[in-house]
Amino acid sequence: MGVQGFSNVRETRFWQRGFLASQSAYVLGALVVLIVVMALSSPNFLTERNISNVMQNFSFIAIATLGTTLVIITAGIDLSVGSTMALTATATSLAMRWLNDAGFYPFPGSAFILSVAAGLATAGIIGLANGFAVAKLKLAPFVTTLGTLSIVRGLTYVATQGRGTSPDGPDKGLFLAVTSARIPMPEGIPNLPVAFIYLIALALVMWVALNHTAWGKHVYAIGGNEAAARLTGVNVDRVKIGVYVLCSVSAGLNGIIISGWLGSAPANLANAYELTIIAAAVIGGANLFGGVGTAAGAIIGCILIEVIRNGLVLARVDPYWQQTLVGCIIVAAVFVDRLRSGRTG
Amino acid sequence: MSLLELRNISKEFGAIHALNDVSFTLDAGEVVGLMGDNGAGKSTLVKIISGIYTPTSGQVLLDGQPVNIHSPGEARRIGIETVYQDLALADNLTASENIFLGRELRRKVGPFRLLDHAAMKARAVELFEELKSETRAGDYVRQMSGGQRQAVAIARTRLAAAKIILMDEPTAAISVRQVAEVLNLIHRLREAGIAVMLISHRMPDVFETCSRVIVMRRGSKVADKAIADSSPDEVTALITGAKEAA
Ligand SMILES: Nc1ncnc2c1ncn2[C@@H]1O[C@H](COP(=O)(O)OP(=O)(O)OP(=O)(O)O)[C@@H](O)[C@H]1O
Ligand SMILES: [Mg+2]
What we know:
The complex is a heterodimer.
Chain A: H1 23-41, H2 48-73, H3 81-102, H4 110-135, H5 141-160, H6 172-180, E1 182-183, E2 192-193, H7 194-212, H8 214-224, H9 226-231, H10 236-262, H11 273-283, H12 295-314, H13 321-344
Antiparallel strand pairs in A: 1-2
Helix pairs in contact in A: 1-12, 2-7, 2-10, 2-11, 2-12, 3-4, 3-5, 3-10, 4-5, 4-10, 6-10, 7-8, 8-10, 11-12, 11-13, 12-13
Chain B: E1 4-13, E2 16-26, E3 31-36, H1 42-49, E4 57-62, E5 65-67, H2 72-77, E6 80-83, H3 95-99, E7 106-109, E8 112-115, H4 117-130, H5 146-157, E9 164-168, H6 176-191, E10 195-199, H7 203-209, E11 212-217, E12 220-226, H8 232-240
Parallel strand pairs in B: 3-10, 3-11, 6-9, 9-10
Antiparallel strand pairs in B: 1-2, 1-4, 4-5, 7-8, 11-12
């Protein structure tokens, strides 16, 4: 290969690159250890019912975590995901009620389709606003989305007079089924929550998009060196707006799923979830300085947080310890990553 | 008619006059050295030609036609490639991903157009062989030496059939052996009829490869003469201001 006399030049070993060299891999290792410990210490942990619950619970935040990870890869942040979940759920359930009151039901399923579309459109508009402010007006993502957090939560309260709403009408059953059903599995296999299936499908799409499309490389390039991305002709503004829209829509989707499980969309739905979601993304290896993050990492982060919560419940420990523990894990994960990159980098 | 002509280009950044009324021409197969002290306006000039800055006043002509180059992508489409002074690489991507950033090779997979990683890597390997660089296409730029980064930035300009290549200090931070390779490459570019503008603080680079040297001082062009009619001493005097103009 035209390499002569460079004894210090060699291919990096497989474990020094790719997934195995990432923070996600270390956290996955920690997760496996945690699961083994819990399985040994609590007979209820590996029951079908509990596994199914755990899957359902982490799916409630994991789709939004996928979107948030995209934003974090571009060195951005979206603090408004929790509020977006609430407003999207509210818009969906309000739309369903209006359609019912107006008696507009051209074909079976139409109320469901229209109201979910209305909800996701609402989420898309929030993302567009965030993206526009960050990419075009060059506002700092942290402050911008802190503002959106408040604006969107406020709108949710205004729209429902603070009372919240619940989906109603001819498609209510369909709505509940599509958002919160569990698909029965044969004996010995936990029932599959539909949210989990959506999550896996979206994670696969995200993996392909990040690793096998030009767009994905542009997302990483922006996080790695935004000026360089611009100089090489990447349409930085468009990619940035795109990731904020995807983030909001993914959060909206999660909001709709949660409201289906609750059977209603309270105005305080997903309050402060942005913190858990960002924590999950960071634990899963997304770097707040940008340039690093994966779909698999986002899911691993969410599972870890949920398994800890679940473990505390099973161990009859006050579940409020969860927050404290999650905080410790964030710091530990970032610290281990620091040690590791200090050694090899 | 020249391949590239700049007419009375000025650029202001607020109160800073980075360029004052600069004019010059660049012909096919010509290698022109651009020299000047730090802050003389060399990079600003390059960035105007490569579409990053729009001049405050003045005109850029390509093949005699006035052009407005609004973006780096547009500059590349009309055949202008640039090696930027800060190299403009994304650390978290591999060498081949950086080379193809913004113009990735894709292949059809069903209804989708996905990245053709293998083709891009193969092409990158070829480019590094051409440059006689020991840079590996699959390595992350984060782990690379200064010279390897330089090779990546230069390899990028070889991707398309460029007519003009602007090099902003391509030999800063690299070893003697690699400097020789870069200068060799510039010779080959000239033979291929490509116009090269070489910015360098290294006198030997310019006197070895260029046929003409342009000297800038405080945003103005103070000299534009054939290498054969000049000397390193004269150019040094022009850069420092010991000699006003030539
Ligand atoms: N984006 C900018 N905004 C404001 N001032 C700028 C900008 N870019 C360059 N300048 C100013 O314009 C002048 C010329 O800068 P330029 O980078 O072109 O110098 P240079 O000749 O390339 O120097 P060096 O040899 O150090 O690379 C400097 O005074 C610099 O501070
Ligand atoms: Mg410069």
